[in-house]
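Hey,

The postdoc asked me to send both predictions to you directly instead of through the lab channel. I've kept everything plain text so nothing gets mangled by the mail client. Protein one:
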Amino acid sequence: MGNLSVLVKKFSVPVLFFVFGITLLVIGIRSKQDSMFMMASVLMFTAGLLSVLYSTGKIKPRVLYILGFIAGAAALVTVFLSYKSVRDTAIYNENYAQCKSEAIQNLTDIRFAQKAYAEKHGTYANTWEELVEFIKTGTVPYVVSEGIVPARKLTVEESKYIYKDNRPIDNLMTEVEAYKLSKSTMVPEDLEGFRRDTIEVSLLKTKFLNKSYTDSRMKAGFGKFYADSLPYIPFTKGKEKWKLETKDSVQMGDDYYPAIRVSGEIPYSKIQGTANEKLSFGKLTSNETAGSWEDE
């Protein structure tokens, strides 16, 4: 009974390590675990095997120390590789998130500029050169609004001036009525300084160089806006462009509209090791300009 107790104390822990190591190896092989898991399993199995052999007297202490040193070094390498793997994955995920955010901003800006171009010319810009030049030098209408519409009805004289008749005055003054009176020779005192004029302003300055837009780019880490960089997919170092496709006219019911599709593949995937993610907006079969990211 005493000998059995000694044997249990001597071999229980080594055998436990050995069995645990074999179990990890089997699980790793069957479930196709990564290299870090497999290396840890091998080290656990080796430690258990050495413990069993040492307990049986098959290995001398000196040999055990040498093998233990080798196993310890391997363990340190495993820890380093594991840390590096975790760090690399974290960096990859950060780059993916930043790249996708910048790509979405990029496509949003392209869509805005293309819509402004279409409103002015009736079709979308067919080339990147056309669009970039329009962003740099093009203008868009801007309504200058000063003063407010008085919360009162028109007077009889004002109504006759605007409508040239004696129609009943039932409602409060409208924006259009206030505008017409502000341009007349009989400007009421409460409409002095009232202004509603449409002027042409620089697209670049009003949209892409205003403080609000610039601050939002800086906060998101996108940097300063450059029109020349707009056609390029972020994080490709200027080597890959978005694919620009346009149609001057597609039929939608009884009407015809211009159509556009801009698409491309960013150099990252949502899950590392899978296919890179694709982003786009618009369709060539309709006047829809929704972005793929807006459906997520």
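Protein two:
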Amino acid sequence: HSVPADAKRGAHWIKPVLVAQVRFATWTSDNLVRQASFKGLREDKPAKEVGRERVVSPEEADTSPADAPETPRKSASTKIKSAAAKTVKPNSPAAESLPIRLTHPDKVLDTASGMTKQILAEYYWAIAKYMLPHIAQRPLSLVRCPEGSGKPCFFQKHKNAMLPPGVEAIDVPDRKTGKTEQYITLSTPEALAGMAQMSVLEIHPWGSMNDDLEHPDRIIFDLDPDPAIPWKVLSTAALDVRKRLKALGLESFLKTTGGKGLHVVVPIRAEYPWPVIKQFAHAVVLQMERDQPQLYLTRMTKSARKDKIYLDYLRNDRGSTSVAAYSPRARAGANVSMPLAWSELNSASLPTFSVHDFATWRKRLTKDPWKDIAATPQRITAATLRQLKIDPEVKAT
């Protein structure tokens, strides 16, 4: 199309690389958009595939004459299948039909394992049935690594126009100002698979649900060992946490962090506010530190962690998060935070699982050790709070 003379005046012509999403009223007679408003950039569509829509008859849509103004483009599903056929490796997740559009599916997001954006998308799509129960309907923080693991990454927790289809928003009031902010949340396999398009290498959920943000339903005990700590000592520490929780009438579940540590997770009835749950977790780990000060540490001071296991209870605070079950980590190898059976602590070393090797461990999903976590009916009783000297009316500090 020709450009109107007044539009040419003073114009600086650039190569079209970015794609903008714009809302407008209509096209003008000289091919400009009327009453346009900028909504954001689209990361899911390359500029070379953007063209002006036109009306065609059903007959024209079914044929492709040589002199047609535009060649009908392949559907998104056809392109996904084509990309999958080219990039799937023998040890990658099964080549299932993806419901999303990927740009640069061959882009390597982890050089250590060779994990590509395509492989990550297939993993999210395949694991969705197992991962969604632990992240759906919760505020989320995403770790995005546009250049892959080992390169600069950043957290994103607020919704914007650039997120893929299916990603929703939950209004979260700021505790200090009262101002409402829109946090990211999702609940469908399609939205989870879309995380790969944004190079999301970690997903971190809140410990509370969208419908009751102020009352957590999960407690996280994060066991972060100094590198010198042997696996046998770390696994024994996890069993120590489990035993203490059992004494308080609480069942717990276990997973790897995807790094060198372990998480002990306690599902509870959502009835106490964050400050109470934080004090509960603190009381449990403080007692462990008093009993074995040579091994356990509850302070964040890194210089004091040598030859010790840091017992991180600070995950249990409003707005704090921990990596989700089955989420990859933004580290070399793209290992996964994997739910474990307690019996797996008897292994010779810390069990590790990666996205790229999903095909080799996928069969373990048939015996998911966390399948009953949401149906575990338990609560922290008033008697337990009194035993730990916790005030159920304590306020946030």
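Summary for protein two, as requested: The first strand starts at residue 20 and ends at 23.

Thanks,
C.
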